[in-house]
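Hey, I'm writing a tutorial for new members on how sequence and structure tokens pair up, and I'd like a real worked example in the thread rather than a made-up one. If someone can provide the structure for the chain below, I'll link this post from the tutorial.
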Amino acid sequence: MTRKNSPPPTIPALRLRVVLAPEVFLGPGKADLLQGIAETGSISAAGRRLGMSYKRAWLLVETLNGYFHEPLVLAATGGKAGGGAQLTKLGADVLARYRRMATACEAACAADIAALRKWRGKAPK
């Protein structure tokens, strides 16, 4: 999972962004958020891992939940029993498919990305 203070990726890099609808995308950030929810059981904890506000994390979850025919994330409100969130079966499947597509794209483009790295000059300031 990408974290707020993690080192930048080796540049040039390939990042897959799937356009689901106008202004609705599934990319590395939303995939990392879904992964974080699966690992922590919390939207806020997953957002914190990514350096994202609770409000932003909720907005991204609501966007994804609103696009698909059923929610990707189910959330329970807090209180005495505590809150929490979990991926639905569909959410886990969407995340797994995105990760597979990203891996396949990286593999398909590896030689070309390596060539771009080799030809790279100084980074612009």
